[in-house]
Amino acid sequence: MSTLYRRGDVRLDAPTTNHSDRYWRAQARRIFAVWAEVQQIEIVHSGRRTDSRFYTRGMTHAPRAIYIIIASTGGAWGKSRVDFRPV
Fold this sequence. Notes:
Elements: E1 2-6, H1 19-34, E2 40-44, E3 66-72, E4 80-84
Parallel strand pairs: 2-3
Antiparallel strand pairs: 1-2, 3-4
């Protein structure tokens, strides 16, 4: 499962009671504020890189204008996160 946010997306500012949504929307807003060239952010909630629409095997950087976050909040080891930033 993944979520895709685009710059200027209305959902980033929409009110929600879901804490997970609030956290990821805040992360997306911060990334858009810092990375001017980023137009899309993909958050992969399953923690599996293969679930990403943009990730390809062996990739070290995200494609241009895309920021990918591979995140998992479950499992025996707790939270983990890997970010793929554009070059």
